[in-house]
Amino acid sequence: MSLETRPLPVIDNWNRPFFEAAKQGRLIVQKCTETGQCFFPPAPVSPFTGKPHWDWIEASGHGELWSFVVFHQSYFDGMKDELPYPVGMVKLAEGPFMLTNLWDMRADEAVIGMKLSVRFPGGPDGLVLPQFGPEA
Amino acid sequence: MRDKVAFAGIGTTRYGSFPESDSYGLGCEALNIALEDCGLKPGDIDGLIVSRIPSYERFAEIMGINPQFCLLTETAGRFSGVSMALAANALYSGAAKYVALVYGNNGRSVRMRYGGGDSQWSPWGMTSPGAIHAMMWRRHMHEFGTTHADLGPVATAFRHHACLNPDAVMHGRPISLLDHDRARPICEPLQLLDYCLINDGAVAWIMTTAERAKDLKRPPVLLSGYARQDNFTYRTSPPDDFWYPSLSATRSVYDRAGIGREDIQGLGIYDNFTPTVMFSLEGLGFCQQGESGDFVRDGTLQLGTGRWPTNTSGGHLSDSYMQGWGIIAECVRQLRDDCGDRQIPNAQAMQYICATNIAQSAILRRAA
Under an 8 A CB cutoff, do B131 and A100 touch? Predict the structure, then answer.
């Protein structure tokens, strides 16, 4: 695995805090202050109210595997040596869905509904890409 | 707006790889065929919708068209149906008399790749429309007990149709369920034969009012009804709804058209990947949610064997990747008895379905 050669994220004003927190080993999501619901990807306003009334909260890092795919086709030069690689859709305990990779496990061990937890093993250019693997 | 607007002319180019042309050249070719088909000249066109051709201005300049209604759409295939509805509204309101809709694609010869590049999820390697559909189908398999093999009859039915269609890219190349099962994986659970083609080509339609269409060369095909429901929550990758609620909302197309499901002889379903056909059949109520695998198993979608011949040209999977434009053109051709060996006997009405975040359905029928 070579997280260092992964494609760089497109960082904007809304997701920058997410990537800064990941460098410190924290998974953060936005929480709508009016409805109490969390949302992701990062956005300027809450999708539940349309208003900029939200706070960053630290997520528990727990979730369940909602679905997953295994890439055999190469789309990124920096991921060629990882083929075939899995991408999982994780439903966080806080509600939002997040796309990630399955870490510390093989794709053929993936079972929808299994409990997963977050890891912060690294990423390209000093960034950290949160990964999910079997709950410790 | 029931039956007020008609398809008067249809033009499609050859399909394949044409590095000697481009989307402008192909678009002009298709438009000239469509104009010839209905007996109009470029100067008669007062409305223009252009899709996947880079510039509407340049295209209009090339063709010598100076309309009073003009638009360039986003390139996504859902915009074929959206464009049809926009043209219908323009015609119905009197904003234009004859609208030319032109789609041109040279993705094959410029080696267009669907996937890669920068996106929200690219650092995790998540990219490409195929992967999004693979993710949805895996969840569908989990929720309803469907399988990858359930997709096979979709791929084989459409390939069978392509083998009846001399213009299809995959003409003469039949496939079996075993071929579908053994095709190389692209993004599991989807494999090569679950994916649409990438090829060059262009499609043009001339739409006008039903009244004006009566005076043109070919029998008019009426747009009887159109329904649309958008759902942009989680945008392109809905975790678990398979666009079912929004597709279900488009069942209002039957009321709008004044035609029931039993009065329809064939379907045109947007098939970028085999799972979208399943989502479409479930969403529009051809079978219960989760039961599309059983529904398609015995050749239901195949000409000659099934009640619901679907994508009789071969669709995106086996005819040509014209992003809905070609599928709607095929519906029109069925309703003119233009389809030769792949003609649906006594086709009176056809239904188009597009399962995307802009869910749509339309019913087309022969003018009385």
Answer: no
